[in-house]
Amino acid sequence: MKQTSHIVDSEIQDRAVLVSLVTQKQKKNEELAAYSLQELVKLAETAGVLVLETMTQNKETADTRWFIGKGKVEELKARIEELGANTAIFDQELSGAQVRNLETALDVKIIDRTQLILDIFAQRAKTREGIIQVELAQLSYLLPRLSGQGKNLSRLGGGIGTRGPGESKLETDRRHIRGRIDELKAQLEEVVRHRNLHRERRKKTGVFQVALVGYTNAGKSTLLKQLTQADVYVENQLFATLDPTSRTMELPSGKEIVLTDTVGFIQNLPHDLVASFRATLEEANEADLILHVVDSSTDMRNEQMRVVAEVLEELGAHQKEQLTVFNKIDLCTQQEKEMLSTEGDFLKISAYTQEDLERLRIAVQEKLMGENKLFRIPAEKGDMISLVYRIGDVLTNEVDGEDMLFQVRVNKDDYEKMGYLLAAYDQQRAQQEGLDGRGEIY
């Protein structure tokens, strides 16, 4: 048992004891279990909770009735009364029956890790899309647990676990909740439709899309702000920003791309949350390049990278072109810098160093623009000439009879797309005028 504070402030609504169950399976990686509890403390503080103490229970498996066992519940009750706590937060997900039993025994609000994360998201959501997604995730989480949430939901005073959809109908009307879920899904589908239209427009204009992904608090929003001078909220806390933000970034060549900051990942990210935020997270799936931002100053960076890789795989974005950006390198010792993974394409930077930001811009440009290619385009085909300038970095251009020759640095996908367009034009011209086609790439 580790005590973190004995201070009780009557003006702080939520005063909590944090509880973690370490099973036989988890004991094989005690470092990860300890990190999960540390992360729970940060999550609770982010939600505005005063953490009074943390408690760990080692048990072969979870108790189906009491989760941590009847004896540990009695010990927890004694500590809650001694410290004056009004909330118990568990590091794992609880069933409705476990919540009901723990509430009866402890007579305090019971919150699990999933509900805590959902609560933080409810605080952070600002846009219509974000608010819809959070409410949908909360209702999807609560619906199968209503039988075990009665006292918890009706407990006076609000605070964590009650933000978002509210509590007036949750206890009594399952049909109301199911109807609301259907309504939210329909609203979200409309949002997704609009987002897809915007994506298609961006694709047609040939504008590159780059997505910042990474574990929460890895520094994605800071990078977005430094690279684009965007007016975005930056704070050293978990899930400081929730809604995706897209800004224009200029590459060294002068070409502009769209850089999007996505919601941060975290271990044991609630399944309902991943499902509800799929439209937002799919910004990574639609990107031409993914910048995987890693907090290089944390000892758990490898675990955090694994979590991000798993979520990307779940979204189907794991095969996208990626560049790993080891951020916060200024906070690392020389030994820590040498321990950073050197697999795949990577860059070690500090978001506050202009030289490092320029190196990142160059690396992004090289990833996106690809190799030098030669395009031959009929001079009268102004729309194709314009497209060449949009999709690539034009190095040279010259006139050759009725054609224009362009030396362009362009990536593989756009090179192949341009080849398809020129071939189609070639065929159309030959059919109309009986001439040999003159649109070529080499």
TrEMBL record:
Subcellular location field: Cytoplasm
Cellular component terms (Gene Ontology): cytoplasm
InterPro entries: G_HFLX_dom, GTP-bd, GTP-bd_M, GTPase_HflX, GTPase_HflX_N, GTPase_HflX_N_sf, P-loop_NTPase
Residues holding GTP: 214-221, 239-243, 261-264, 327-330, 350-352
Predominant subcellular localization, coarse grouping: cytoplasm
GO molecular function, one term: GTP binding
Keywords: Cytoplasm, GTP-binding, Magnesium, Metal-binding, Nucleotide-binding
Cofactor(s) annotated in UniProt: Mg(2+)
Domain Hflx-type G positions: 208-372
Binding site for Mg(2+): 221, 241
Role played: GTPase that associates with the 50S ribosomal subunit and may have a role during protein synthesis or ribosome biogenesis.
Family: Belongs to the TRAFAC class OBG-HflX-like GTPase superfamily. HflX GTPase family.
PANTHER family with a match to the protein in the record: GTP-BINDING PROTEIN 6-RELATED, GTP-BINDING PROTEIN HFLX
Entry-linked HAMAP family: GTPase_HflX
Subunit structure: Monomer. Associates with the 50S ribosomal subunit.
UniProt name for this protein: GTPase HflX
Annotated organism of origin: Paenibacillus sedimenti
GN (gene name): hflX
